[in-house]
Structure formats: structure tokens, C-alpha cells
Amino acid sequence: MSSFRAPRESLGVLDAETTAALVEGMADVAVVVDAQGVVSDVAYHSSDLAADFSPDWIGRPWLETVSPETRASLEALLDEATEQGVTRWRQVTHPSLRGSDVPIQYRALQLGQSGKVLAIGRNLQGMAALQQQLVDAQQALERDYWRFRQVETRYRLLFRMVSEAILIIDAPTQRVVEANPAAGQMLGETPTRIIGRPFPEGFDNESTQAINGLLAGVRAAGRADDVRARLLDSAQEFLVSASLLRQENASFLLVRLSPVVPDAAQTASMPDLKARYLRVLEGAPDCVVITDTDGRILTANGTFLSLAEIATEQQARGESLDRWLGRPGVDLSVLMANLRQHTTVRLFATTLRGEYGSTTEVEISAAAVRNGERPYFGFFIRDVGRRLSTEQPASPEQTRWLDQLTERVGRVPLKELVRESTDTIERLCIEAALKLTGDNRASAAELLGLSRQSLYVKIDRYGIVAEQASEPSGSGKK
């Protein structure tokens, strides 16, 4: 922070009315506290904010106007103002008369030797609203994604569990794209070995001709009558039916093989693994925290204890998870509100603060689970601070050019080195643009901010040869 070089000459002596107008104009809420920590005056920038707070602040200790979990932060603010005169920004939350708590960020200034403190506050409700909008948008994307995944999962499950043999065949090449386990069992092969092979294969000549006629009729008319077919080395007879499927620009044939005497379906039961979940969660590399509906910790695994820099689980039990999150009063409120509304939250970005000052970038996913009449919330916190950089390494050509440039320093004038370096960088940028656009020169020129004629001149100048001819005609599109 920098100060005025000559405040008295620049600002003069401000009277009380001018100072009050300045403070009221720059702060959403301004509070004057006496030496005993009692509110002596308060001003609000808007009537909406004034309606959120109790009108009887004046005459009350300021600590009584904030929520219990943020009183420690307010005490630190007052102590810092007394010791240093000017404080840094600290965030607290005030109970609201109209609903959820209001987060306010304060900075305090000691007023002379009287012991009074002036605190100016910024309303963080707008930030919380933006965070809520972001979470809502992410929730919508997640719902669409999981709806698609659920449809795909149901398809895969049905495809595998159906007792009839199902084959999905590429219509132009007539090769198997997918096969379910029942198809492998009927054809005497595993499904993975059937994929990629031509169909029909392994049937007698009469059956092969009948199946080929069936597939040709389906490709031409969309439907055809079922046919009977028999394998070469088996007396088992199948009823073969087919239908046409179109997916984007591709055509597939859905072929069903129904045995004339169907086999009894076999069912298998999966072992119950729920008893092992607790041991897996306790040893998980991600933090697992379970809280009640107020956000107070019921249990936490060892990974969370390590990131939060606390020794035992007993130290965390009963404490609010908000104590360790990056933005007290904001992050947990947003998470809890979305859990109550949507029951799940995914990839919520924030930080986790340790007891001894460490800060870790994390992503939080959470779920609300009902246990009788009292739900509880599970939080899965992942440390993302050590993710590897996705930057691409320098190419061998770039490394070689830098080495050559370094070797020529002292032997070639600087002006010539700069000119050659500029030409080399320009050529590399043109090659990168052509690579990004698939050698489409019109698109590359637009990407580089050049006209087509300028790009053509530079391509000829540097002798750049395109991997494939993609020059558009007319509109400039591939």
C-alpha cells in the first residue's frame, strides 16, 4: 500500500461532515466502535442492506452483531486496529432479518488517541450470488452429462443382460462393431473376438445366402422378413432378424439371433461389498468429511486431518467445516444451499487452510444422504495444487534454433540477429497457424490477423509447404 506524499497540502483539513460523506460513499456499511468495542454509530450505503440488519446495533458490543463462528475474526480485526492503527481486510458474517447470513468484508482504522475505531465494510452478497450462478450453471451441465451417462449405462446394461444374441454391424462393410455376451456364447466365441470379423461367418451356405439377402433388404428398404440360419458345426437353428440404425452420418444394422429352443437364462448375484466401504474411505488419498446439516464435522478421514494440520479426529468433531475453507461464511453456505436443493455438488473450487497457515488449492464434490429423518452431508475434497502443467515442451527445431542463436552472439551484429530471429518467429507462427487450421490458408490468415495476400507472400518467402491442399474456393471455408 502506498500513501499520499503530502496529504495535508493535497486534501486540506477535512471537516466531520465531509469525512462522513466520504466514508458513506465508499463503504457499503461503516461502523464506529468505541474503546470498549461498543457500536457508537453506523451508516449504510443502501436501504436494502439496512433492512437486513437489526436496527439496535448502536449501544451493543459489535461482537454480538456477528455470527458466532466469525467472532474470532472480528476480535482479530479490533486487536489489529488497536496495535497497528490500520488493518487488513477480514471477513465476517452478520445474521440477517430476512433469511441467510450476510457476508461483509471489513477494514478498520483507529481514530486518534481516543480509542475509537472506524470500520468500513464491503458487501460480499454479490460475490456469493455470482458463485451461486456459477454453481447453478455447473449443476445444469452436470445433470445433462449424467443424464447422458445414465442412458448409456442403461443401454450397456440391457445390451449385456439380454438373453438373445445381439450384434451391431457396420452397414457398408458388414463387419461386427459390437456383440453382447449372449452372441459370443451362441457363436462359440468371446465377444471381443467376434468384433471386427465379417458377418455372416461360420454359417452353412444356405444360411449365409439367406442372411446376406436379409441384410441387403434391410439396407434397401429398412426392414425385411426374418430368416432361419444354422451354424456349420452345430445343429442349433437360429431365427435371424435385423433392423437399420442411423447414427450421425453412419449406418448400422442391429441383428438379433434367437435360438429356436432358447436356453434358460442364468443369473448371478454379486457379493455385497458395502462392509468394505469404510476401510476404503478411511484410506482414500482424497479428503472425506461427513457433516450434519449445519456443516459441523461428524467424522473425517486421515487425509483431511493431514491437510487441515490437526492431530486427531476428536479435534475436528463438532467444528464447522467453514473453519478450514478459503472464504469463511461464503463457500460452505453456497455448498450447503446447493446440497439442500440438488443433493449433489461437483468440482467446487476453493482453498483449504491448515491450522498453521498452509493453504492448499482443492476441488470439493459433495452429496446429501438421508438417514431416517436427519440427513447428513458427505464432502470429498481433492488436492489439485500439485497437478502437472499441461504446457507443451519446446520442439527440437525450436531448441536447435535457440542454440544456434546463442552460438552466434558476439560474431554477428545484434541488428542482424534480431532480424533473423524475427523472421524465424514469424515462420514458426505461420506454421503453427497452418497446423491448427489443417493447412487452411484462409483460416490461418484470419487467425494471424493477416490478409490472404500477405500470408501467401510470407509462405512463398519462407518456403513453407502445406501437408495437404486445403485452399477454399469462393467462401474461404474448407
From TrEMBL:
GO biological process: regulation of DNA-templated transcription
Top-level taxon of origin: Bacteria
Ranges of residues in domain PAS: 15-85, 151-197
Any GO molecular function: sequence-specific DNA binding
SUPFAM superfamilies in the record: Homeodomain-like, PYP-like sensor domain (PAS domain)
Pfam families in the cross-refs: HTH_8 (PF02954), PAS (PF00989), PAS_4 (PF08448), PAS_8 (PF13188)
Cross-referenced PANTHER family: BIOFILM ARCHITECTURE MAINTENANCE PROTEIN MBAA, DIGUANYLATE CYCLASE DGCP
Stored NCBIfam families: PpsR-CrtJ, sensory_box
Protein name in UniProt: Transcriptional regulator PpsR
Native organism: Thiorhodococcus minor
Gene name of this polypeptide: ppsR
